[in-house]
Write a structure and sequence with these properties.
- About 60% of the residues lie in helices and about 0% in strands.
- It is an all-alpha fold and about 450 residues long.
- The chain has a domain at about 310-448: Leucine-rich Repeat Variant (Alpha Horseshoe), CATH 1.25.10.
- Strand 1 (about 50) and strand 2 (about 55-60) form a beta hairpin.
- Functions as an E3 ubiquitin ligase.
- Keywords: Transferase, Ubl conjugation pathway.
Length: about 450
């Protein structure tokens, strides 16, 4: 247990605090009462709550234990909890507040009284009203109630968890589906408001995904992607990403909707922000790398290729964040699973320099995708009778040294096998081109 605190404003981690009214050479230790400390964090409790076992904890710590870590036992006693709902301990909180006031000179500020978290009955009441308004087709009433849900969710993480556990996702997804039956200008606002509410309470449970994954809801999501406001399109693609990544049966259904592929590609070609681009790339990745029929995948990829997405991805890869880089390379690897995609990548002057640049400099995932694409391009060259172009260009930009280093550091066996094959091909042409002399290994963002 922690028995002493220093003046938090001056020396937060010190063990002793000097009292201003005493001589400078006299140190005074301030002991925090043990029952004021959270048994989990060992810190002074800001919002003490008591579990069914009678042990008091700080709300943030114990709710993380229960809801994030998934534990169903008391952290101290190990006894299974009869109730997962912590009860506010007002007596201890008042005692802590009084103690902080008494020790203000030592830097202890009075802990403010926490706002009471939302309760299940309050959320249930709002959801019941949404169902009632939905039956009356009262879009304005639904908008007002969804705004209340959003306000509560934005207040605190514990409110958000309570909202999620109360079945809000199911109610909102059913409401979205109901208003999707009439995608008119009048309903556009309520549909986008529901999407903004849903975007706050992810990840979705099975029932929520089922409602949003219905054919009618998917069609409405595509409509929002094509015609919605910037925030509407942002929320729609983030929700679509959740559906496509968790339910592979929806991939074909979504791709068959008119304008679906084009609306996703447009979010890459005309980006809104990095989070929207990231969600769009992930949705596209699931569409172009499914374990379904090859003809279906080829049709989808061809649509993306015809919109110039290969060129856009390569431009993006020149300078982008790690997250976007990994997703863009994943999509590009998916495109290169068909000959048309390989042809586009092979004829683009940026392809080889960009792929070699990403080797060992971004992440293991980026390296694996880059090696996979280079390997596919090398195989493709042999099939079209242009063997050697990729090898010579790769040698000029330092591929040999990077691939050789890759064999010596940690990576998957499959990636090492592909890197080995590429090195054999590069070695055949080393005497024909002038390779770069060395690499700036000191800047490699990788621990050896």
């Amino acid at each position: 247990m922690i028995s002493g605190y220093r003046n938090r404003k001056a020396l937060r981690n010190a063990n002793k605090i000097k009292k201003e009214s005493r001589p400078m050479d006299l140190e005074v230790e301030v002991s925090v009462p043990d029952h004021f400390l959270c048994p989990i964090s060992l810190e002074l409790m800001k919002d003490p709550v008591t579990l069914s076992t009678g042990i008091t904890y700080d709300r943030e710590s114990v709710e993380r234990w229960i809801f994030e870590d998934g534990k169903r036992t008391c952290p101290v006693t190990g006894v299974e909890l009869k109730s997962l709902e912590p009860v506010p301990n007002h007596t201890i909180r008042k005692m802590i507040q009084d103690w902080c006031v008494e020790n203000k000179s030592y830097g202890f500020d009075r802990i403010p009284t926490p706002r009471a978290p939302t309760c299940s009955s309050q959320v249930s009441e709002i959801l019941a009203k949404i169902v009632s308004m939905r039956a009356k087709r009262d879009s304005e009433g639904v908008i007002e109630l969804v705004e209340k849900i959003k306000d509560l969710a934005n207040e605190s993480e514990r409110n958000k968890r309570r909202i999620m556990l109360s079945g809000s996702g199911r109610v909102l997804s059913e409401t979205f589906e109901a208003f999707s039956l009439d995608v008119s200008q009048e309903n556009a606002s309520v549909l986008e408001e529901i999407l903004s509410g849903l975007a706050l309470i992810r990840p979705f449970d099975h029932e929520t995904k089922s409602g949003l994954g219905s054919n009618q809801s998917l069609r409405t999501l595509v409509t929002v992607l094509k015609q919605g406001t910037l925030s509407g399109r942002r929320n729609a693609v983030s929700i679509l990403k959740e559906i496509l990544s968790s339910d592979k049966t929806k991939l074909h259904e979504f791709s068959e909707i008119e304008g679906s592929i084009e609306s996703l590609a447009k979010l890459i070609i005309e980006p809104i922000d990095s989070s929207t681009t990231s969600a769009s790339l992930l949705a596209i990745y699931h569409l172009v790398t499914p374990s379904t029929s090859f003809n279906q995948k080829k049709t989808i990829i061809t649509k993306f290729l015809n919109m110039g997405l290969t060129e856009k991805l390569l431009e993006m890869l020149v300078d982008c964040s790690r997250s976007l880089c990994e997703k863009a390379l994943g999509v590009l690897d998916g495109f290169c699973s068909i000959d048309e995609g390989l042809e586009r990548a092979h004829t683009n002057a940026l392809t080889i320099p960009v792929l070699v640049k990403k080797l060992l400099r971004v992440s293991d995932i980026a390296t694996e995708f880059s090696v996979a694409i280079l390997w596919k391009l090398s195989k493709y060259e042999k099939s079209i009778g242009h063997e050697g172009d990729v090898a010579m260009e790769g040698l000029q930009v330092g591929a040999f040294q990077k691939l050789l280093l890759l064999l010596q550091v940690g990576s998957s066996m499959k990636t090492k096998e592909k890197a080995g094959e590429l090195l054999k091909g590069l070695n055949l042409h080393r005497g024909r081109v002038e390779c770069i002399d060395s690499m700036d290994f000191k800047n490699l963002k990788r621990s050896f």
